[in-house]
Design goal:
Elements lengths: L32 E7 L8 E6 L5 E3 L15 H8 L5 H8 L3 H28 L3 E12 L6 E9 L4 E5 L2 E2 L26 H12 L3 E9 L5 H8 L4 E4 L7 H10 L9 H13 L14 H16 L5
Helix pairs in contact: 1-3, 2-3, 3-8, 4-5
The structure holds zinc ion (ZN).
Zinc ion binds next to loops.
Amino acid sequence: MRNPRAYCPNPDCEHWRDPYAKPTLPPPPIDFYRKDGYRRPKHNHQPVPVYECKSCGKKFSATLVKPIRNQKRPDLNRKIFALAVSGATVRRISILLGCDRDTVMRKIEYLAGEAKKHHAKAMAKLAKEGGTSYVMFDELETFVHARHKQLSVPVAIRVKTGHILALCVARMPSSMKLGGAGIQPLPPGGTNWTYNDRPTVVPGVFAQLAPVLKPGATIATDGEASYPKWIKQALPGVRHVVAHSPKETSLGRARKRATGEPRETDPLFAINVLFAKARNDLARLGRKTWTTTKSRKALENHLWIWLAWVNGYPVK
Ligand SMILES: [Zn+2]
């Protein structure tokens, strides 16, 4: 393999350039380094060519500029990516792969970062192509640590492809007794969970959509009272459609099946089915589960990995 890095990694060397910044100096001469044998990484023992700078003697190899630089087990990345969106918990992934829980945690953080990079590129590409004309938006409810510490996950999708365009995590005031809103004294074990990040986070998600919406695009949401105000503020000129999913019981469904009566169509089907998939794919989002979110940051990282999975980004 030819060395893709045409720079010396030693900052004191004349051939050094910052590979992540915009180049200001001309690239160093093509023959500023020589080949100096191979090294064998511990994880796969495949030889990687090592090069040596002729000016300062610094040794370097091609992996230096790849996202997996400094990783001891890059072979685990793809497996952890697949398992994390297949209902496996951190503990279970570490058992299945025979690695430490901290390794899994660290890799999930890294994979989330990679997912963000891929997503930024994909959104820029979509904006360049002219954007989309129909977007659906809804919020998925979950919690951190205990059910009454409620969180909301606002998600916007492109209906045509089913791809996720934007998502975030916000705290919302608890609607449960243990959440303590207006309840004096607080029940034992309760938390005064009256935080409300939604008025800043949800308009933030709408604002992220602005570059990828065609002029006169449509956004469909449910009838939440604040949406019209927030959409008007963040997305001026965008048509807002309020739709309601039919309330259907399993008994009503069975009756319709028996009588042959058609079921009502769900105008928000695309996003509802995506949320149903999320509750299946991410153990922590399940309706009846022993798995809980321990921190908002971890939930956010996990959601980013899931976004990469749904949108088909080649994260590794
Ligand atoms: Zn050098």
